[in-house]
Automatic annotation (TrEMBL):
Gene3D superfamilies: Calcium-transporting ATPase, cytoplasmic domain N, Calcium-transporting ATPase, cytoplasmic transduction domain A, HAD superfamily/HAD-like
Catalysed reaction equations from the record: a 1,2-diacyl-sn-glycero-3-phosphoethanolamine(out) + ATP + H2O = a 1,2-diacyl-sn-glycero-3-phosphoethanolamine(in) + ADP + phosphate + H(+); ATP + H2O + phospholipidSide 1 = ADP + phosphate + phospholipidSide 2
Nucleotide-binding in keyword set: yes
Positions with biased composition (Basic and acidic residues): 1249-1258
Enzyme nomenclature, EC number: 7.6.2.1
Organism, scientific name: Somion occarium
Domain P-type ATPase C-terminal: 879-1130
Name of the protein: Phospholipid-transporting ATPase
Basic residues: bias regions: 1158-1175
Length: 1258
């Protein structure tokens, strides 16, 4: 078979490659991720031996490096296996045995079969054929793709699971090929099918793929076939090119430099033209200065051109070449200020904030939009089981120990030195065979992503009392037993035994799912694993392990918002069939049977308290199903699962048939730990006027939970949900949202929008929207139809894909988002994150900042004006692509509000003052042209002009860029509203540039003309002996330096010792230089101003001229600043004045009273709005459903293999001929920030329904 010439083909016959085992990493190329074996296989395909997995012998390895045999045969001729996997002689006899061979990533081709070992990165997009696990399941770490640190499960293609060795992979009897669509950027979709020789197609979905960039975990090996490589892999297609970033100040400065170039050209042209006219007019008149001007190199007809060229040199200082050098030096030091700032130094990891791009410091002060990742950026992705309500009684858990070890390893009550929870049972030591059996394990290890065990002394007492009480006694054990049984069985968690600690370890797809099962284990309801369809559970209510037969799994999706399992309890007569359910409170409550009203009312109030504490909630219920009902339903359900028409709809309808008349058990409350200070940081950034967008790969409900727990969504804000793939198209949803919530905006009045308004085939008013009373007075009144609070837009990835497909859709999305206080984008791919940033950056011209911590955030970070990487648990990919590296999200506040504010103010002020000081010098030279016949003659002695930018005026602007601070750092942190000034670009603009240029022109005219007319001639000598130009020119030079230095000082806000030194040294330098340079004898070298001191310093013209021109030059600027401060002070002026009068003032208190508005003694509508209490409402534009949000967040991985694993054996048992893979499910973490702990008297438990008992061992 010929090697593929390109990485994508519509169909192919695989080639076989692949990977080294862990023990063969001996050569220097150990960084290579893939081993491969070339072969010569006839184009008809491969034979497949029908061996069962247990029939394969263990692998056999040769001494040759990178070669692996796994067929158990003797090794022959290993020295010839370097180039081919399989080779046939002309006689048809095998000369080489199938084997695996190590290779580099670049040699992997489409169609190669690869073997990947545990802990290794995936080199390409690979279709799974088989794995080391009995059920052909593989676990991968996907943080480089979606930012999630939890493991995801993937499963093999059912028809390829026999390919468990090189021998089986290279067999010729089973030809097959793979048909797949073109490569795309969607991380959650793949279009492919495996076609067998009998033309049977087996569908392939993303749950059967290992994508490049992921890492194989907890799986010994995986054998797969390569579908896409190189540029066609999803991670590469979601990557962007590394941009070359330039700051906005630098971009704004370039036109100003161009203006100066135009001024230089105009001045030079003026000198050349006027000089040519004067020479040609005065030469015939016998002008003495033109005597002999008829030579080839001195001719009135060409001297104008020469004068033009000399004028370019004379006025060259107007082009601030030294400004570029100075500003780069200043930015370098500003980067050091950031690095040495102890306030943004993370002592735990010994990491300082690092400026990786030194030219963007001023951009930090102009950020208008922040785009943030979630996992590792806003959250720790670590869960804590905080509270639960069981039968109406709330268990809040015991306080956490103060000496809790770091990173999820607390000190348990019964094990003071470890992180595992000992279990009751036999104390006899286990044998070696028992050491890997979860049923024999004596402890439960704290799961990854779970911070500590759940303990509650009241719950322990109640459980103990309930275990000793008979049924239907005051201490009824049924609700307690049923609650924890549902929690311990209704999930997709796998179990294993840690080989070192011999403790059970739960492997969950998300930390919140692990936290629920871990909490059940902490109270002795220990899930001990699953053997095919049998679930094993130990409880305090039973001496022996309880066994449950798993019958069906009714999986989670974003519409159902619940998950159910149907189990049959074993070892009891009669065996009962139980439906165990957990999900959102609203979907559970509407499916409750009679007799639950009192408990429902109590639980609903408790859920509100949980939500007010920022906790994620989950409601638990159950139902006992009669055998006859289940048998009839099961048959119809099996038919629905194998149907080809409307399969999902039929399955959903049948699932709802059983999920009714539920008995309520209680609710759980989980906290997803945020990074330290995240809610406060987001609240402060919002108050600073920065709009924050969160882009995450999580589900919609999780995204909303993120918004609530991080203060992105306020308590009285409303949520507009736009989802793709629904009954209403995305454009109609956005149109309806604008029409309903922003009727007074001009969005829909735009002609282009009116021409593309939704029609009857695409209606925007397919449902009626009504205003929801949330109990809060509408801050804008009841008559204009506005909802209380602001609006937050939540949009998913499929809706974004639709919006980005058309310019009209993009425009409407951008306009809608502009009217919202925040935007949350869920289920987005890395490339969509970058497109979101570009939508705002290019569409609004706004300054954007993107922050993330994983490889999936690199495109977003590179697309933004400023990229910030967090050194978190997801590696350093984001940091390596970022402009600034920080250790914690909370450091972003100081980075922007202090360093960004200061840097932008310093750099903007420095640049305009740099332009100003140069125009003063050039202006004096230009005015002198009037008196020297426009001959481009120097006014000053040349060294004064030469040192103008080197010594005389450089230090004040450098000090301005390094040490000036408009307001102290603690004031900027306490009053985030002050960030509005730099955000609006007030410190550097074309208007400011023009003002400073006018200042320079005015001051140059005052200095030159007043001193020209002060000196009757150019010297103060009265004997008429000489007309000495440099005497009065030196006076102009010293006056200009004095004026420029004092003017720069007038524009500096904070006069530190360094500012005093910089300004003072300039004045000392010009005076000392003049005095010393004037006394140097011509015997040393020629000095044009020798003896100047004899006349200059003794002249009244000099001293009185100084006293005249310096105040007059500075007067307009001083008067303007005084007028502004007295009559139209800005917030900055007000705060600075108050801080000067009261240096010890606590501005944090002023912020609580209204912030800057309070300092101005005017009411702050916004601060009052922020303090209002209410309940957030939400409107789903795809369905028109309007509801009140109570903090629920329950999401599982749709389309994944987790539930598929649970159902696979069930399907085989019920219909072996129609084995079908089920959608996976996975809890997706939610986010919370406990704000208060309210202790209330626990209500009495309501009565139990007399007919149905919860799952119990009694």
């Amino acid at each position: 078979m010929q090697r593929k010439s390109k990485t994508f083909v519509r169909g192919f016959t695989p080639k076989f490659v692949k990977r080294k085992r862990r023990s063969s990493r001996r050569r220097s190329g150990a960084a290579a991720e893939v081993e491969y074996l070339e072969h010569g296989v006839p184009p008809e395909g491969f034979s497949v031996q029908g061996l069962e997995p247990e029939e394969y012998p263990p692998p056999q390895y040769t001494d040759e490096e990178g070669i692996e045999y796994d067929d158990g045969e003797e090794v022959e001729g290993t020295g010839h296996h370097r180039h081919h996997l399989l080779h046939r002689s002309e006689s048809g006899q095998w000369r080489k045995r199938p084997h695996w061979k190590l290779t580099t990533w670049e040699d992997v081709r489409v169609g190669d079969v690869v073997k990947i070992m545990d802990g290794e990165s995936i080199p390409a997009d690979v279709l799974i054929c088989a794995s080391s696990e009995d059920e052909n399941v593989a676990f991968v770490e996907t943080k480089n793709l979606d930012g999630e640190t939890n493991l995801k499960s993937r499963s093999a293609v059912p028809v390829l699971t026999h390919l468990r060795s090189a021998q089986a992979s290279a067999a010729r009897k089973s030809a097959f090929h793979v048909e797949c669509g073109p490569p795309d950027t969607n991380l959650y979709r793949v279009e492919a099918a495996v076609v067998t020789p009998d033309e049977q197609k087996s569908p392939v979905d993303i749950s059967m793929m290992l994508l490049r960039g992921t890492v194989l975990r907890n799986t010994d090996w995986v054998i797969g076939i390569v579908l896409f490589t190189g540029q066609d892999t999803k991670i590469v297609m979601n990557s962007g090119n590394t941009p070359s970033k330039r700051s906005r100040v630098e971009r704004q400065m370039n036109p100003q430099v161009f203006i100066n170039l135009i001024l230089l050209a105009m001045a030079a042209v003026a000198c050349g033209v006027v000089d040519a006219i004067l020479e040609q007019r005065n030469y015939p008149r016998g002008a003495p200065w033109l005597f002999g001007a008829t030579l080839n190199d001195d001719n009135p007809k060409i001297n104008g051109l020469v004068t033009w060229a000399f004028a370019l040199i004379t006025f060259q200082n107007i082009v601030p070449i030294s400004l570029y050098i100075s500003i780069e030096a200043v930015r370098t030091v500003q980067a050091l200020w950031i690095y040495f700032d102890k306030e943004i130094y993370y002592e735990k990891t010994d990491q300082a904030t690092l400026a990786r791009s030194w030219n963007l410091s001023d951009d930090l002060g102009q950020i208008e939009y922040i785009f943030s990742d979630k996992t590792g950026t806003l959250t720790q992705n670590a869960m804590v089981f905080r509270q639960c309500s069981i039968g109406g009684k709330v268990y809040k858990g015991d306080p956490e120990p103060e000496d809790m070890p770091a990173k999820g390893y607390p000190v348990p009550e019964d094990n003071a030195s470890g992180s595992q929870h000992k279990l009751s049972g036999s104390n006899s030591p286990g044998t070696d065979s028992d050491s890997t059996d979860p049923k024999k394990a004596m402890a439960v290890k704290l799961s990854d992503g779970v911070l500590h065990h759940f303990r509650d002394s009241d719950l322990t007492t109640d459980l103990k009392a309930a275990a000793e009480s008979p049924p239907r006694s005051p201490q009824d054990p049924r609700i307690l037993n049923g609650f924890w049984t549902v929690l311990a069985l209704c999930h997709t968690v796998l179990t294993s035994v840690d080989p070192e600690t011999k403790a059970i370890e739960y492997k969950a797809q998300s930390p919140d799912e692990a936290a629920l099962v871990q909490a059940a284990a902490d109270v002795k309801f220990v899930f001990r694993g699953r053997e095919r369809e049998i679930l094993t559970l130990t409880t305090p209510f039973s001496e022996k392990p309880e066994r449950y037969e798993l019958l069906n799994v009714l999986e989670f999706n974003s519409t159902r918002k619940r998950m159910s399992v149907i189990v049959r309890k074993q070892d009891e007569e009669p065996s009962r069939i139980l439906l165990l359910t957990k999900g959102a409170d609203n979907v559970i409550f509407e499916r409750l049977g009679r007799g639950n009203e009192e408990l429902k009312e109590i639980t609903e109030k408790q859920l509100g308290e949980f939500a007010s504490d920022g906790l994620r909630t989950l409601t638990l219920a159950y139902r006992v199903i009669p055998d006859a009902e289940y048998e009839e339903w099961s048959e119809r359900y099996r038919e629905a699962t194998v149907s080809l028409d409307d399969r999902e709809k039929r399955v959903e309808e049948l699932s709802q048939e059983l999920e009714h008349d539920l008995r309520l058990l209680g609710a759980t409350a989980i906290e997803d730990r945020l990074q330290d200070g995240v809610p406060e940081t987001i609240a402060d950034l919002k108050e600073a006027g920065i709009k924050i967008w969160v882009a995450t790969g999580d589900k919609l409900e999780t995204a909303i939970a993120i918004g609530h727990s991080t203060n992105l969504i306020g308590r009285d804000d409303n949520i507009i949900i736009v989802r793709g793939g629904g009954a209403r198209d995305v454009y109609s949803q956005m149109w309806g949202a604008v029409k309903q919530f922003f009727p007074d905006s001009t969005i829909l009045s735009d002609q282009n929008m009116q021409e593309n308004a939704p029609t009857a085939s695409r209606p925007s008013d397919s449902f009626s929207l009504h205003r929801v009373n949330t109990g809060v007075t509408d801050i804008v009144g009841h008559d204009n139809g506005q909802r209380p609070g602001g609006f937050v837009l939540v949009i998913d990835g499929s809706a974004l894909a639709d919006a980005f497909s058309d310019e009209l859709h993009k425009d409407l999305l951008l306009r809608l988002a502009m009217h919202c206080e925040g935007v949350i984008c869920c289920r987005v791919s890395p490339i969509q994150k970058a497109l979101i940033v570009k939508l705002v950056k290019d569409g609004l011209g706004a300054m954007t900042l993107a922050i993330g911590d994983g490889a999936n955030d690199v495109s977003m970070i590179q697309a933004a004006d400023v990229g910030v990487g967090i050194s978190g648990e997801e590696g350093l990919q984001a940091v390596n692509s970022s402009d600034y590296a920080i250790a914690q999200f909370r450091f972003l506040k100081r980075l922007l509000l202090v360093h960004g504010h200061w840097s932008y103010y310093r750099n903007g002020n420095m640049i305009v003052n740099f332009f100003y000081k140069n125009i003063v010098c050039v202006g004096a030279l230009f005015w002198f042209m009037i008196y020297c016949a426009w001959s481009s003659q120097y006014l000053f002695e040349y060294t004064y002009l030469l040192f103008w930018n080197s010594f005389w005026t450089i230090l004040p602007v450098i000090a301005m860029g390094l040490f000036d601070r408009i307001v102290d750092d603690h004031v900027l942190m306490d009053l985030p509203e002050l960030y509005a000034h730099p955000r609006r670009g007030e410190y550097f603009s074309l208007k400011l540039f023009v003002i400073y240029m006018i200042d320079g022109v005015y001051q140059s005219a005052i200095i030159f003309f007043l001193l020209v007319y002060t000196y009757w001639t150019t010297t103060s000598r009265t004997d008429g002996y000489a007309v000495y130009q440099y005497e009065f020119a030196t006076t102009i030079a010293i006056a200009a330096v004095m004026v420029v230095t004092l003017f720069n000082g007038l524009n500096i806000a904070a006069w530190t010792v360094w500012v005093f030194w910089a300004l003072g040294i300039e004045i000392v330098l010009i005076w000392a230089y003049t005095a010393i340079y004037s006394v140097i004898s011509p015997g040393w070298f020629t000095t044009p101003i020798f003896g100047n001191d004899h006349y200059l310093f003794t002249s009244a013209y000099f001293w009185l001229g100084m006293l005249l021109v310096i105040p007059l030059s500075l007067l307009p600027r001083y008067a303007a600043k005084a007028y502004k401060f007295i009559f139209t002070p800005s917030d900055i002026d007000t705060v600075r004045y108050i801080h000067k009068l009261h240096p010890e003032r606590d501005f944090a208190r002023d912020r609580q009273r209204g912030g800057v508005a309070h300092l101005r003694r005017t009411p702050s509508a916004r601060s009052q709005h922020l303090r209002r209490k209410g309940v957030a409402a939400r409107t789903d534009m795809s369905t028109g459903i309007r509801s009140v949000h109570h903090g629920f967040d329950f999401a599982m991985e749709e389309g994944g293999p987790a539930l598929r694993r649970l159902q696979s054996n069930l399907s085989e048992r019920s219909a072996p001929a129609h084995r079908r893979k089920r959608n996976a499910s996975s809890f997706i973490p939610s986010f919370s920030l406990p704000q208060s702990i309210r202790r209330k008297k626990p209500p009495t438990s309501p009565p139990i329904h007399p007919h149905d008992d919860p799952p119990s061992s009694h």
